[in-house]
Amino acid sequence: MGVCGLGGLPDGQGTVVLGYSVYPHEEGRGYATEATRAVMTWALSQPGVRRVRATVPSRNVASLAVARKLGLVETRHEVHEGVGDVTVYEIERGPEVSPSSHDWPELVHDAPSPSPRRRKEWACPRGPGSAA
Hints:
The chain has 132 residues and is an alpha+beta fold. Helices cover 23% and strands 28% of the residues. The longest helix is centred in the first third of the chain and has 14 residues. It is globular. The relative contact order is 0.15.
């Protein structure tokens, strides 16, 4: 379907960078919004995170809409080499959000993985009449 995730640990100001992308044939189904909301909510509940930032190519209307829909606020425009004009969106942790008891995974293998049953539920059919 696509990808969604954070670009590393929080910087010195407590900012993490959020990225998301959906394959063209999966666009318009709400996957980017759903995945991004989950990652953003989780990130803002982590100790040391004060802000989530998304840098979106200004020509990507769908991704700009996802950022706005999730409450990220446009903070500035920049020009990035190889990408061109980008719009920077940010959202800060509100006072109503408190850090959770979950720590950042120290290594990738520390992160929980879905059970085989869940993986099958996530599978997409290959077409009419085909098994997932």
